[in-house]
Design brief:
The chain is mostly helical. It folds into 3 domains: 86 residues, Arc Repressor Mutant, subunit A, CATH 1.10.10; 59 residues; 115 residues, no CATH class. Helices cover 51% and strands 3% of the residues. It has 10 helices and 3 strands, in the order ααβααββαααααα. The longest helix has 50 residues.
């Protein structure tokens, strides 16, 4: 399953209760689309490789009433039992609320990426059209015996050939190079759009990068990028936790968002000791 972790989790009354935060993160990922986790604590611990003591402590805290919770329903409890006759199996109280927020965020991001892609494609069409015109003009000059100017793409910044984005190969590469980072389970439209945008962006050469014109060359570039990510303790969750918070771990979606991608390439997460 796939679940989005919201920043509010670290800013509310769970702050300081790291076992509860870690456990809630696992429940969000394991929950069904209706917010149900019908598993025993032992099963959750086995599935997530988190010690049972941490899971049990986290579940105990999440099931307590909290008068200061942002959502007053169920007395502020984060989880409630599915059946009062058994001590395991829970429903996430705020799951529907945050799922709606996640869907809204994903739609907005997908729309933004789609519009940006459409604008870029429009620019590419214009560039190709200029290239076709240059070729036609060159052919006419050759027939007339005139000297031929440079053909588009040969020293004049003409349109570059961008190979199709191999989504599954890139996902497999991410899993291979960054085995400790979160696995990709759902590859939705928003994530596809982000990956496609970064793939096309890096394929086009400029003064700082050579670009790539084949799938093999593109995969080689992305292997280098992910290998560079693996060298950051902060990005792969190897930094020391602070203030009871679990270490940050980057996932593939985070790594291909434009702002994050730029910061990684600039070495922002390698120049400092992860905190």
């Amino acid at each position: 399953m796939y679940g989005k972790i919201f920043k509010q989790m670290y800013e509310g009354t769970l702050a300081g209760h790291w076992q509860a935060i870690v456990t809630m993160q696992q429940l969000v990922v394991l929950a069904t689309k209706d917010g149900i986790v019908d598993m025993t604590p032992e099963s959750i611990a086995r599935t997530t490789s988190i010690p049972i003591e941490i899971i049990q402590a986290g579940l105990e805290h999440l099931a307590k009433p909290d008068p200061y919770s942002r959502t007053p329903g169920e007395d502020g409890k984060r989880i409630v039992l599915l059946d009062d006759h058994r001590p395991w199996g829970w429903r996430l109280v705020n799951h529907a609320k945050y799922r709606a927020l996640r869907n809204l965020e994903e739609k907005r991001e997908a729309d933004r990426v789609r519009i940006a892609e459409k604008r870029k494609q429009t620019n590419d069409v214009a560039t190709v059209s200029r290239g076709v015109a240059d070729v036609a003009h060159t052919d006419a000059d050759a027939k007339a015996g005139k000297a031929s100017p440079a053909v588009a793409g040969e020293g004049r910044g003409g349109a570059a050939t961008v190979p199709d984005c191999p989504h599954q190969k890139l996902i497999d590469l991410y899993h291979e190079v960054l085995p400790t980072c979160p696995k990709v389970v759902e590859w939705n439209d928003m994530r596809q759009a982000l990956m496609r945008a970064r793939w096309r962006e890096q394929a086009v050469p400029n003064g700082k990068r050579p670009g790539y014109a084949t799938e093999a060359a593109g995969l080689a570039f992305w292997r280098r990028y992910l290998t560079y990510v693996a060298g950051s303790e902060f990005l792969i969750g190897q930094s020391e936790p602070t203030q009871g918070r679990a270490p940050f771990v980057a996932d593939l979606e985070w790594l291909i968002r434009p702002k994050n991608f730029a910061k990684v390439v600039e070495g922002r997460y390698h120049q400092r000791k992860a905190a």
